[in-house]
Amino acid sequence: MSEIDAAGRLRILIADDHPVFRDGLKAILASAGDMEVVGEAGDGRAAVRAFKDLHPDVVLMDLRMPALDGADAIAAILRTSPDARILVLTTMDGDADIQRALRAGARGYLLKDAFREEILAAIRTVGAGRKHVSTAAATRLAEHPLGHRLTEREVEVLEQIALGRSNKEIGDALSITEGTVKSHVNAVLEKLEAADRTEAAMIALKRGIIRFD
Predict the structure, then answer these.
(1) CA atoms within 13 A on the CB side of 85
(2) What is the pLDDT of residue 144?
(3) Residue 191 belongs to a domain
(4) Same domain for 86 and 44?
(5) Pick from 142, 168, 190: which residue ends a domain?
(6) Judging by DSSP bridges, how do beta strands 10-15 and 132-133 pair with one another?
(7) Most buried among 47, 80, 82, 187, using CB within 10 Å?
(8) Which residue among 142, 164, 187 closes a domain?
(9) Pair 70, 17: CB distance under 8 Å
(10) Count of beta carbons in the 10 Å neighbourhood of residue 3
(11) Cα separation of 111 and 89, whole Å?
(12) DSSP class of 195
């Protein structure tokens, strides 16, 4: 990690694929005397490259980005810079989204509807080497403390369910028998406490277990 600059400011890299949001965030950070935006990235791969070039003190990372999503970008940065301080700033509020980012190594998680003061406080907290998980994100995690507990294959089946495919179609797509698909579907319904396939798909999308970008 780089040292805080001579003026005592935190050097910030913004990784978000929406230029208008980046501009708004830069305006917020410019109002704080202890922060400086040193770089921007519009996708996950660009964020990894920018981190290597700039060595910022804090990265503000969106999760839903092209080329490489935010969680994968976080993991890629931490593989070469394990002390990197990354704060997720995103609209994705599902417990599975939050868990995915924190498991990847993010030190903080904040939703984009946060007030200016919380954004600045979270950046300072993460910049100081501590963790910050917003109250909204912590509440989502508390609702599902054990996570979704689905296996990788069950998630694949769930993705197929969300596409409206029958058991036979799912079996053909995943190269498994229709009977095996039925067993996975039953397990998914039980673990998600869903009454039927449609409700299971809705729960999974809401929680961020599956995503369709």
Answers:
(1) 21
(2) 78
(3) yes
(4) yes
(5) 142
(6) unpaired
(7) 47
(8) 142
(9) no
(10) 8
(11) 5
(12) S
Domain that holds residue 162: 152-207
The answer on pLDDT for 210 being more than 90 is no
Same domain, 126 and 173: no
Tens-place pLDDT, residues 166-206:
999 999 999 999 999 999 999 999 999 899 999 999 999 98
pLDDT above 90: residue 145: no
Contact 16, 37 (CB under 8 A): no
Tokens in use for 122?
A: 């979270």
- Give the Cα separation of 73 and 75 in Å (integer): 5
* Residue showing tokens 């839903």: 64
Residue 30 lies in a domain: yes
> How many other β-carbons are positioned within 10 Å of the β-carbon of residue 97?
24
For 84, 90, 120, 128, 201, the CA distances from 56, given in Å and listed in that order, are 8, 19, 16, 13, 39
What element of type H or E holds 176? none
Does 40 share its domain with 63? yes
pTM value is: 0.81
Asked whether residue 213 is assigned to any structural domain, the reply reads no
27 and 94 both lie in a single domain: yes
Contacts of 212 (CB under 8 A, 6+ apart): 162, 205
Do residues 158 and 138 share a domain? no
Q: Is the pLDDT of residue 6 over 60?
A: no
